[in-house]
Amino acid sequence: MLLTLVQLICWVVFIYLGISALYLFISALAGRIIPSKRYISSPEKKRIAVLLPTYKEDAIIVHSALMAKKHNYPADKFEVYVAADSIKPETIQKLRAIPVQVLEVSFEKSSKARSLNQLLNSIPVGAYDVALVLDADNVMLEGCMESINAAFQSGYKAVQVHRTSKNKNTTSAVLDSLSEEVNNHMYRRGVRALGFSSALIGSGMAFEFEKLKEVYNKPGILGNPACDREVDFEITCAGIVIEFIDNAIVLDEKVGSQQVFERQRTRWLESQIIHLRLFFKDTGWANADKALLE
Q: Does domain 48-293 have CATH number 3.90.550.10?
């Protein structure tokens, strides 16, 4: 009897792992043989708010904000907003001289979600059609916002662009770069080729402005160590397909040491555990926010 039970468990695990491996193989193959849709330009322009939350990143935020402000998209159709958390006064002065819009924020427990919440609620209702979220070290390559605009003009309400490595100067950075490109291929390029939603990364992602504001006004998201997972969850629940724009490039600074790489992966694992609790909570989806706060 015990042997039969063990065999049954082994078969269940084997079938589960086999289906998972088959899914990844099909996704990888689809991403290889089915070309991604390319977005270039559209005569109609969406109004875009570029959101840059930053925490103690004085060394890089001025350059990132300047590059965003200089991006080749009609100047009257976008603005750059920086949520400055624990940023030095001289850095804030430099940001305002670019000029970009700076919102000084301070929290008992800082988080990217709290900064985005404050930014989104500080912008007047109806001022923008699209909110584009970047990290403090991100730099958009030429045509990025044009491609995002073209995707929204085509009817999409959420998009993830192709985030790729800015640096490969250490072994940890190379490993991080390889990991991101594998994920881009299977979980974004491949799944879109199969007709499913792209996975979000956390930056280089754009949404209908009011929808993103609605998501970041949910209390449970504010303390989430990886709030993009919660955004992914809420967008999926709303029945919105997330497009992947392969030819819209955002450069991202990769981790420079093994210690930082380990801390980053630990934080991601923590976020996955939080969302496993969310899916399996006995009280159902309505208490998702409560599950995140516990």
A: yes
